[in-house]
């Protein structure tokens, strides 16, 4: 579905992402981990057109994403949730999801259809009944589910999830993990997921990609990553520095 080749992103003299190759398959949940500053968010930004790579290509179902604007990438079927929750707090829960349903779809969607998709996404994440609440009044956990609903309302083929577990209790992390797994199982969505909370990412991913200082240092099943020497060293380096 998505095949990235030699993706490189520089900021001045800093190579934030350095010649990275990876792929995401149909209905696959792939984790993206690595110490702080490893280049994870930058890699997401290269996919979504926010920071196009200086080199490399990103093929999505036979189409080149490099050169497309963030809007075009979204409309092509790649949704994204953000690390810092970006809800419009004064707007209602339904209005928040409507923005995803209207702007994320490639075909032009009527307002009625957008509202149906938004309500459906809210039901999917368990926020039905809260449509008229102000988004700012939701708990952190519910605001994270709302972020997922915004992404899913665009009916994407791939959703990029950025550190959705931060600040949640173990039970809430479990719930959000289940929503992500159901998105794959029931809606056929592929997931590329940055997460620092290892238990969450180890439990549901098919594969994990590890970045360190911009380079891909491992790509394998959770079991393989757990016992990978280079990965252990990268995280130890982080603790020591
Ligand atoms: N817009 C930017 N301009 C300049 N440097 C940047 C920019 N965005 C990121 N960087 C640098 O690129 C490197 C990779 O940062 P990035 O945010 O991608 O890492 P990360 O793995 O997502 O880290 P974290 O886990 O802390 O979120 C860092 O050294 C960072 O300072």
Give a verbal description of the structure:
The protein has 241 residues and is of the alpha/beta class. The chain has two domains: 2-77 and 156-240, P-loop containing nucleotide triphosphate hydrolases (Rossmann fold), CATH 3.40.50; 88-155, no CATH class. It contains nine helices and ten strands. The chain has helices at residues 40-48, 70-76, 93-103, 111-124, 140-152, 170-187, 198-204, 222-226, 229-240, and strands at 2-11, 14-24, 29-33, 55-60, 63-64, 78-80, 158-162, 190-194, 207-212, 215-220. Strands 6-7-8-3-9-10 form a six-stranded mixed beta sheet, sandwiched between helices. It has a four-stranded antiparallel beta sheet with strand order 2-1-4-5, with helices on one face. A hairpin with a 2-residue loop joins strand 1 and strand 2 (14-24). Helix 4 crosses helix 5 and helix 5 (140-152) packs parallel to helix 6 (170-187). The longest helix has 18 residues, at 170-187. The radius of gyration is 18 Å and the shape is globular. 42% of the residues are buried. The structure holds adenosine-5'-triphosphate (ATP). Residues 11, 14, 16, 34, 36-42 line the site of adenosine-5'-triphosphate.
Features:
Rossmann fold, 6-stranded mixed sheet, 4-stranded antiparallel sheet, 9 helices, binds adenosine-5'-triphosphate, L-isoleucine transmembrane transporter activity, AAA+_ATPase, L-phenylalanine transmembrane transporter activity
